[in-house]
Amino acid sequence: MTRLITLSSGLRQPSSTRLLADRLEAAVRAALEAEGKAVDATMLELRPLGRDIMDAMLTGFPSERLEAAFADLGSANALIAVTPAFNASFSGLFKSFFDVLPEETLADMPVLIGATGGTERHSLVLEHALRPMFSYLHAIVSPRGVYAATDDFGTASAGSALGTRIDAAATDFARLVSGCGPRTVRSADDEELTTMQRLLGG
Fold it and tell me: At how many degrees (to 10) do helices 50-59 and 92-100 cross?
């Protein structure tokens, strides 16, 4: 069973970010099922957790709801992460969630990145902001992300082009998830213990 978490940090309802997240999830599920894998997919919306995330940043203590989100994410085999783009970077809500996420939660986890924005000018947010952040968190980032501008949700031809990009990214991501195999969940405490044992052994 592949546990797939899709994280959307859209700030409005309805949200183009959530729309892209839904389409990516559906395409990834179809690609994994085509490989004979069962998929348990869960959507994680950050908007309802906004206050919890801010409180955790200010106090250092996550709420029960935020702890539950952390646990769900930590037990997943794969993650789709989608954010709106602001000023050529990810949203503050999106970044704040990963700022309070326990260390090593995403270690060795395959991640498909996606972003939405008003124009194509923000498309480099995938390579200049999202990919470096997830690499820093020791995730395994899929080589093909998806950016969708407002126009991509407009005309039929634009929607078809977006659909082609989504399908291609989903196919690549399914291969990555399959290639990575079972994931061993790590924690910051495990890393510190390993480091201490290495030092004592030396």
Answer: 50
CATH number at residue 151: 3.40.50.360
- Domain region containing 15: 2-201
DSSP H or E segment with residue 158: helix 156-180
pTM beyond 0.85: yes
Query: How many domains does the chain divide into?
Result: 1
Taking a C-beta distance cutoff of 8 angstroms, is the pair 9, 99 a contact?
no
- Please report the beta strands in 22-102, taking only residues with DSSP state E, as ranges in sequence order: 39-45, 78-86, 89-90
List the single range of 125-134, 179-188, 193-202 with lowest mean pLDDT: 193-202
Q: Look at the alpha carbons of 9, 10, 13, 15 in this order and tell me if their dihedral is positive or negative.
A: negative
Report whether 106 contacts 75 (CB < 8 A): no
